[in-house]
């Protein structure tokens, strides 16, 4: 079970989007080198205002490129980095993975999935109506479905580039479904 890295993005300042790069370097326990969200404690401004000592479970944001295809069918234009992700993948069901899944990105880097990204209202500032496309209801209409990617922490550092393979290693034991982190 695996896929590929389609794009990598980072930004040293707070902004909604992140420019694409030729490569990014993941640092164990910190995140993306030079990215505003790297660190051992939370770097998301809303979360820092609540409690800046929280452990950073959102060091690397991964998003599946297939979401962009789905959004295009609904009339939206979204490209890698536009929604603030660091790594854009194809061929991996990121949203279907359990907590604790390890993803090997390229030859060296390994991230551990910690949970789902909770999209904020800034998405509608980017493109009006987009928030409703990335947050919906399940088929039964009862549960909320978050489609805007997964968050992770860096277990092993390394350079990640577009075209690198993504290898999936599921955790041992009972699988825990992803929740917002």
UniProtKB/TrEMBL annotation:
Q: Which PROSITE patterns does the record associate with it?
A: MOSC
Domain (MOSC) ranges: 18-169
Q: Name one Pfam family in it.
A: MOSC
InterPro entries registered for this protein in UniProt? MoCF_Sase_C, MOSC_domain, Pyrv_Knase-like_insert_dom_sf
Protein name, as recorded: MOSC domain-containing protein
List the source organism.
Streptomyces mirabilis
């Amino acid at each position: 079970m695996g896929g590929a890295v389609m794009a990598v993005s980072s930004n040293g300042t707070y902004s909604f989007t992140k420019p694409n790069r030729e490569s990014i370097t993941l640092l164990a326990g910190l995140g993306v080198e030079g990215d505003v969200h790297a660190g051992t404690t939370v770097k998301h401004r809303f979360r820092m205002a609540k409690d800046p000592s929280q452990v950073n479970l959102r060091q690397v944001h991964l998003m599946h490129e297939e979401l962009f295809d789905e959004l295009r069918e609904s009339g939206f234009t979204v490209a890698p980095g536009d929604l603030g992700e660091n790594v854009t993948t194809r061929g991996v069901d990121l949203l279907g993975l359990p907590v604790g899944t390890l993803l090997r990105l390229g030859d060296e880097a390994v991230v551990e999935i910690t949970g789902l990204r909770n999209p904020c209202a800034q998405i509608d500032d980017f493109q009006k109506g987009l928030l409703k496309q990335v947050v919906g209801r399940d088929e039964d209409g009862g549960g909320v479905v978050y489609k805007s990617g997964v968050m992770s922490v860096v277990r092993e550092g390394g350079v990640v580039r577009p075209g690198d393979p993504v290898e999936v290693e599921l955790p041992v034991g009972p699988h825990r479904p992803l929740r917002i982190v």
